[in-house]
Give the backbone structure.
Amino acid sequence: MVAASKGLSDYALSVEGLTVSFDGFKAVNNVSLYVKRNTVHVVIGPNGAGKTTLLDLICGKTKPTEGRIMFNGHDLTKLPEQKIVKAGVGRKFQTPSIYPELTVFGNLEVSYPKGRSVFGSIFFKRDSEVIDRIHETAKLVRLESLIDTPADLLSHGQKQWLEIGMLLIADPQLLLLDEPVAGMSVDERRKTAELLLKICSNRSVLVIEHDMKFVRAIAHRVTVLNRGEFLAEGSMDEIENDPRVIEVYLGK
Amino acid sequence: MPNIPIFAAVGGYELHELKDIFIMQGFAGLTLFSVFLLMALGLVIIFGQMKVINMAHGEFLTAGAYTTVFLSKMTQTYLPKLMPIYFPIAMLAAFGVAFLIGWIVEYLLIRHLYSRPLDTLLATWGISMLMRETFRLLFGAREAGAVMPNWLMGSLSPSEGLDIPINGIFLLSTAVFMTLFIFFLLQRSHWGLCVRATLVDRTMANAVGINTARTDRMTFAIGCGLAGIAGAAFTTYSSVSPSAGSLYIIDSFIVVVFGGAGNILGTVLSAFGIAQAQSILEFFTSGVIAKVMVLLTVIVILMIRPQGLIATKIRR
Amino acid sequence: MVESSIKRNIIGTRGEFMSFALLAIVLLVVFPLAFGIFRLNLTAKYLSLAFAALGLVLCWGYGGILSLGQALYWGLGGYCMAAFLKLEAAAVIARDASSGTARALTTVGLPDFMDWNQITTLPYLWYPFKSFTLTLILMLFVPGLVAWIVGMAIFKRRVSGVYFAIITQALAWCMEILFVTRQGLTGGINGITDFRTILGVRVDSTAMQYFFYFLTAILVLACILLCRILTGSKFGQLMIAIRDMEDRVRFSGYDVANFKTFVFVIAAMMSAVGGALFTLNVGFMSPKLVTVEPSIYMVIFCALGGRLSPVGAIYGTLLVCFARTYFQEKFPSLWMYIMGAVFIVVTMWCPRGLAGVMDTFLPKLWIQVKNHIKLPAFLIRAVDWIGGDAEGRC
C-alpha cells in the first residue's frame, strides 16, 4: 500500500513501503503505516508478523532494505540510533532494558535529555531542576520509595515501570512501546494501563500488544500485520469485525 | 624517511630470477601458512564456539613441540630402529598431550568464565605464564631440537635453482589434512552437531538434551590439541624453547580476526594471505619489519572492514 | 544525594575521601621519611607505572575497554621526554667540548647514538623537542592522537572488546619493533639514556631526585582526583552503563563511540604522563618498556589493586612492583607462578581486586571486632565515622 501523498503535517510518523530482508527472508514486506499526531496507534498480529522488527526499523536498531520512515521532516532510515532518539523518538523494549548496576535515580539521570555529549556529561550539573524532575518521574511510575535501589533488585513489573520512566523523562514526541504489559500480573497490568493512559496524552504513541482488553482501552487506531505484510487498519471495532483479521488472528 | 626497498630490489633482479624468488618465498610462505593455519584453526573453533580467547594457545604449541622432542630423544636412545616411523606417532602424542591439558584447563578454569570474555583473556594469560614457567623448569631455558627422520630431511628439486624442502610439503599436507578433517568433523560427527547446535542457540541446545558444557570442553580440548599438532610440525623446522609458542600468538590471533573469527574458509584465506605477504616481504626487508608491515596493514584493513574477510553471519 | 558539583565529585563519599587522604599521607609523608633516597627513587619509578594503571581504571574498570597495549602510550610520553633531555644533554656535551672539558662528537649538538649510527643531521622529528613547552604539549598530544585514531576507527565500527584487546596488543608489539629497528631515530634496542640536565639543572643530583619523586607523587594524586571528577559525574554513570549495556545506551541518545574514544584517550594521556615521569626519575627509556609484557603488568596492577578503584590501582602497582623486585632476586621461578596465580585468582574470584576485598571484608571484620573486643567508645565512634556513608559502589 504505497502512499498517495497524505497531509504529512497531520502525521507524526509516516512509514512508507518499508521492507527489510534477512538473507532473502522478508521480515517486513512493503509495510506502510501512518500515526496521527497525539494518538495511540496499536499494531497487532500473530507471532512472527514482523511487529517487533517494525519497531526495530523505526528506532534504528535495524536498517531497512527499502522504504522510508518520515518523522518531523527526518528520514529515520538514514540516521543512527542516538540521533533518532535525539530527534524525539523513544522506545521501550519487550524485555526490560534498564541499567542494572545503576540505581533508579542513576537510570533516570542517564536518560535525562541534557548532557548527551562527552563534555556535556562531564560537566552535567545535577541541580535542583534535574533532581526534581527525576523525583517527579519516579513518583509517576510508582518508584519513588525505591529511588536509591540498584535497578537489578527491582521486580519484573517494577523494571518495566522504570523503563517507562526512563522514556518519559526524555520527553519524546513519539513513543514506541513493545508489549508493555507482557509478563505482568493482572494488578500490575491495571496499574500500567493507568500509567500509559496518562503518558499517552500529548504524545504520539505506537504500541505492539496482544492483550485485546488493553488494546481496546487505549487504541485510537489499530493496524494488523500478518507475515510481515499489511493486513488491515481501522478503529478497534472495525478490526474486531474484519473477517480477514478474525481468520488470521482473533480466531473464529 | 622509511626506505622503500621493494622497488629498489625489483629493479635489481631479472624477471626469471624474480619468478624463482617468488616461488621459493612462496613455498617458505607455505610453511608459515601451515603453522598459522594449524594455530588459527584451534583458535577459531574455540573462539567461534565459545567466544573464548585462549591466550595460552601458544603454550599448547610448545607443549606439543616438547612432547615431540621428548619422543624423538626416547626413540633415538632406546628404539633407534623405529626412527623412521616415530614422527606420526609423535604427532598423535602431541595432540593427545595438548588435548589432555586443554581438557583439564577447561574443567578447572574456563567453564567458570563463559559470560566474561575479557576476563577469560586475562585468566588464560595467567595460565600461559604458569605453563611457560613449568616448561622452563622441566626442560631448561635452552633450545631443544627434535631429531628428524631421514625421509623428512632434504628437498626436492623439480627444476634448476628451485629447491622445495620436503618438510615444507609434509607440513602443508598436515595442515590441509587437519583442516579438512576438522571441517568434516564439524559437519558429520556427533560432536560437530552439538557444536553447531550450541552455536545457533545454546539454551535450546541444552533444552533438547545436548550437554553444552561437555561440548565446550571437547571443543576447547580439540582446539588445544590442534595447537599441539602445530607444535609437532614446528619441530620440523625449528628448535623449541619455553617461549616458542608465544612468538606465534599475536600472528595467530590476527589471522583469526582477519578471517572473520568464526568460519574455516575465512581462516584459511586469512592464514594464506598473511603468511604469503610476510614471506614475500621478508625477502626484501628483514623478518621483523615484514611482520610489522603486514600486521599494521591487516589492522588498518580491519578498521575499515571489521568483520574480516568472510563475515560469519549469525542472526542476533 | 543532593548537589553534584565538581567539588562534590572530588570528595566523594567519606570513605573514599579517607582512603585518598591516607594515600596522600603515605606518599607525601610516610615514604619520604621512611625511605632513603634509593628506595624513594624506586618508589617514584613504580609510581610512574601506576599512571597507566589509573588510566586502565577509567577505560577498563568503568568503560569495559581492555587495552593490552597501554605501554605504547606510556612509552610515547617517555620517549618525548627522553628526546628533550637527550637534546639538552647533547647541547651540554657540545658546550663542554668547545670549552675543552669533554671530547666532541662528530656532529655538534647531536645525540650520541645518532653519532654512532653515522647520522649527521638532526632528523625532522626531533626538532620540536628542542623546546620544553613543545615537549610537554607533544607528550600529551601524540599519544592522545594515536589513541584517538585507534579509538575512533574501532569504536565507530562497533568492533568487539575482545578484538580490540588483541589489536592493542599487536600495536604495542609493532611499536616495540619499530623503535628497535629505527636505530638512528630512537636509539634502537638500547633506548635513549645518558641525560645530563633538565632546563639547566643536573638530573642526577639528590635534590632533583627528591624533586622528581614529589612531582610524581603529586601528579599521581592529581590524576586520581581527575579520575574522581570523571567517575563521579554523569559521565561516570554513563561509562558504567556503556560497559554493561552498550546498545541500550545508544537508545538513551548517546553516541557511544565518542564516549569510549574519549575515555581511551584520557587513559592514553595519563599513561604518557607516567612515561615521561619515568624518564625523569630513572634516566632512560627503552623499547623493552613499550611492548607486550609491560602492558600486561599494567593490567595486573589495575586488576590486583581493584579495577574500579583509583586509589587501589596505586597500591596494586606498588605491591606488585616491590614484590617483583624481591622475588625476582630471591626466587625468580616462583615469581612467574605467583603472577600467573594472581591473574587467575583475581579474575575468577576477586574481580574487584584488593579494593573490592577490603570493601567487603573490612566492615564485617569491624563488626566482629566491635562485638568481641572491648574498645574505648571514642575509638568506635571514630572508626564508624570514617567508614561513614560508604555507599554501595559498583
Summary: The longest helix of chain B spans residues 15-50. Strands of chain B lie at 155-159, 162-165.
